[in-house]
Write a structure and sequence with these properties.
- With 130 residues, the chain is mostly beta strands.
- The protein is built from no helices and 13 strands.
- The strands form three sheets. Strands 2, 4, 5, 6, 9, 12 and 13 form a seven-stranded mixed beta sheet that branches.
Length: 130
């Protein structure tokens, strides 16, 4: 059974930084995707970043250059480092996991849609003030 638990959210001023953590327990797949999503009230859930277990990463244009997804294998933890935060980054942030996709042309990869993930954490709130 797979369990994901997010932590590290909070309130920060614009321009500040936060690091979100996602602790992972249970077996997902030999190759798997870990993703970060966010959802503001009244808005659709959107993909922020994803990482395939082999090391490849993908970022939404809105956070590229500001956010970084990485993992610590020894701690079974996935992180989202968020720098240069803006008020429109305010949202509930979720960690998600799924088996990786595979093609002979590209190898293992992750998709950006929330529908591609079947394991979810409970969410952690991030609030950025001006």
């Amino acid at each position: 059974d797979v369990r994901l638990v997010e932590s590290g959210g909070g309130s920060v001023q614009a321009g500040g930084s936060l690091r979100l953590s996602c602790s992972v327990s249970g077996y997902i797949s030999s190759r798997y995707c870990m993703g970060w999503f966010r959802q503001a009230p009244g808005k659709e859930r959107e993909s922020i970043a994803s990482r395939e277990s082999g090391g490849s990463t993908t970022y939404a244009d809105s956070v590229k250059g500001r956010f970084t997804i990485f993992r610590d294998n020894a701690k079974n933890t996935m992180y989202l480092q968020m720098n240069s935060l803006r008020p429109d980054d305010t949202a509930m942030y979720y960690c998600a996991a799924a088996s990786a996709y595979y093609s002979t042309a590209t190898g293992y990869y992750c998709i950006q849609s929330a529908s591609g993930y079947n394991y979810w954490g409970q969410g952690t709130q991030v609030t950025v003030s001006s």
